[in-house]
Amino acid sequence: MANVALRNVRKTYLGGFEAIKGIDFEVGDGQFCVLVGPSGCGKSTLLRMVAGLETITGGEIDIGGRVVNQIEPADRDIAMVFQNYALYPHMSVYNNMAYGLRNRRMAEGEIKTRVEEAARILELGAMLERKPRQLSGGQRQRVAMGRAIVRQPKVFLFDEPLSNLDAKLRIAMRVEIRKLQRRLSTTSIYVTHDQLEAMTLADILVVMNGGQVEQIGNPLEIYQKPATTFVASFIGAPPMNLMPLRSELKSQLAGDARAAEAGIIGIRPEDFVISNQTVSGGVALGLTVEAIERVGAETFLYGTRQQEMQGVAATPGELPPGEIIVRIPGAVGPAIGERIRAVAAPDKLHLFTADGRKRVS
Amino acid sequence: MEKSTVFNNRLLPYLLLLPQLVITVVFFYWPASQAIWQSFLREDAFGLVSEFVGLENYQALFAQPEYYRSMLTTVIFSTLVAALSLSIALLFATQADKNLKAAPAYKTLMIWPYAVAPAVAGVLWFFMFQPSLGMLARPLRGMGLDWNPLLNENHAMMLVVMASVWKQISYNFLFFLAGLQSIPKSVIEAGAIDGARPVRRFWTIIFPLLSPTTFFLLVVNVVYVFFDTFGIIDAVTGGGPAGATTTMVYKVYADGRLGGDLGGSAAQSVVLMVIVIALTAIQFRYVERKVQY
Fold it and tell me: What interface predicted TM-score (ipTM) does this complex get?
């Protein structure tokens, strides 16, 4: 059991490319921390630095009160689950799990107890003699988990462990991983690019972009109060609607004290209501419905604003200028080509500075 | 599931196979059958008359003590060359697989010897170790070692082994390097996290995963030492001194080409062919089974 602390951690490659630009956060004992961000944001590199597979070129990584910068992966008392599982193809499932214990010269009797216990938890009992190639993707994934848990390490590291599974299995394994982690209460760091996985698994969510932390916090808090426009559009699906705060919108917000400092306004698709009423202090947008997605329990309307907007600061995942997504419950709604009025209450408005780097509150 | 395409044209598959079949027939089956036929004949000294003698050539062959000696020489020579060229190449390949700046240049240099013809390689080594002139032989003699591959049988054997190993390392190196690079990096990283030190990681993960490559190279190397080292032996020692480096394939040449005993020489090549086929069959039957994972 241990906490993990990163203090001003940096990674600069030989060519001068800065992959990690100074990251600070702490994961408490037994907590589940998720690093999320688009590909290339440095989240995997950061995890590999914690594991000891990448050198740390600046700052400190502390595991259980011990700075591990110069310590070999084997001596950091961590276990890692890789994206491609990285099972030893020539070893049976049993030996895959026993390998790490044998390297640490544990008695065969104790190894047997631990492997069988892990196999029982992960329902791998019938497969101990099989080779990895005889297993399905989900089973391989469980062997990789088993290899991590038999070691009873201080920290579990997960590098996108579910991205090679199909959608259904991914959801099932997601729940399983969370249950297992609760039960063992081992400190965990989990890397993913899937914001849904991040939201559902995390005690602490770290949103990364371009080698930096955009926001750290409890997932719901991040969803409710994104600190930057990047976080606003990355967390939540479909993404938050972001619009430059210009003439017409600005006049609607005349009473809002925040509007003076703000340059961008954000509204989540689920926070709109289709109505002819005006909400005092809120925002109303006139839209023409261009496309409709009916998912059953809810419907997404893709509309364009009558006054086409241009030149929005484009962040990844953001909508094209002038396009707005509105989520309405149920399957009944307007038809394509219809003109609607989407209204959002004042407490549903997210305001950001013009560069998108700061939330105005 | 394997996908298969159905060709309606009945001739096309055979037509596509034809070039390979022609090569195999012209360069293997035809000479091999000639050798078998020859091994039952005896020619007179001028090569004018051939007489069918049945198994007489074989009887004469197995009555020769020199033939058994060449078998022993072959066993020693091939074991040394195969073992050394495989292990040294593996060592070099593991070094080249590391993330070093000079790795590409190193790899290129490693591959060059393969482009040198066996006879040229032989001459090169012969000159380097020629007792009175050789640039490497002189320091050896200077150190008080009575180095003389022209007279000392062990020295001669060492020299042909060195030259043959040097020639074969490139080939083995290339395959080992490719084999190493096909092992997923994450498997090795998992081993590191699982507490295996580099040496243990090598023997418990990398080496077992390389075994299909090693097996393939073993087969290729055995064929190499049996046949392709001929040029090197001919250039370095000519089978001498006193037959110390006369391997079976060199004896085929010496008896047939130099000694004029075509029938006996043919009988030897038939024996050699049988041995190599048997060795390869054994390797496939027993070793290959153990290298699958």
Answer: 0.82
